[in-house]
Input
Amino acid sequence: MKSGFIAIVGPPNVGKSTLLNRLLGEKVAIVSPRPQTTRTQIKGILNLSDAQLVFIDTPGIHLPHHLLGENLVRMAVKSLKDVDLRLFVVDASQRASEDDKRVAGHLEHSEGSVVLVLNKIDKFEAINPEILESYQSLLKFEKTVLVSARSGAGHEEFLKAVIELLPEGPQFYDPEEFTDQTERVLAAELIREQVIRYTGDELPHSVAVKIEEFKDRPEVTYIRAHLFVERDSQQGIVVGAGGRKIKEIGQNARLAIEEMTGRKVYLDLQVKVLKNWRKDALTLKRLGYAVD
Ligand SMILES: Nc1nc2c(ncn2[C@@H]2O[C@H](COP(=O)(O)OP(=O)(O)OP(=O)(O)O)[C@@H](O)[C@H]2O)c(=O)[nH]1
Ligand SMILES: [Mg+2]
Output
């Protein structure tokens, strides 16, 4: 039996979370076209007949502009320690960016093998050799694999490469388990995913979701959640004219949560102002966005 812990790192928006979901065939991490979607470490366990792969999805490594961003980067960097293998995921449709260099810098300062995962290959016919070189020159990689997290292309070869690099070891998790994310946490994330979808470019980063009540009743699961924004003006943006936006966010989130739990859900959302929460260390800790 091969087994091990595998960190998935890279800049924001390259498809790390999409890749994790695709590998597991389960949605354990939310995904969006905007950067800095993932805010915590998310474990996804792939149980195969001869291997147990424990993937750790991480926030995108970038140049942070506030305390939340700093915490996100710290969380990603922390995941590089104590793993058996690191996957450096990049967007193969464009050449290496400043953020990619940043990621390479962190990988260089931690130990162990690194696999370069060139993602989004569905976007082109053949990889541009200059783009490939821009990534391969960043670091010494054990292997390079090409995948599309969206279509699933290249996944067999990818998994083979990963398993080959893992040590022999025990199953660390019950083979029935596929994530460390509780239903409560997943529900909050599915709500946040809809908020990102329905709000503008800057706002997504300003919203945090906290589940206040999560009760399984015989007929329905009752969930009450707070959507925290940073300023009064943002409250109106999330609520929308006549409450239309929050209604759409709520309806879509409810459907997503029902799909996840397989039960009927009653979802009650309230938008609250939590002044400058992104800059407040204690609040970040309370929201689960801090490194111990
Ligand atoms: N065309 C294409 N798009 C992809 C692929 N993988 C991910 N995407 C898209 O890229 C965007 C970012 O995906 P995420 O999975 O949220 O990226 P991430 O790396 O987890 O981003 P952060 O959590 O912000 O660090 C989304 O719009 C995805 O649909 C892929 O293989 N092909
Ligand atoms: Mg992500």
Q: What stands out?
A: Residues 183-286 form a domain with the GMP Synthetase; Chain A, domain 3 fold (CATH 3.30.300.20).
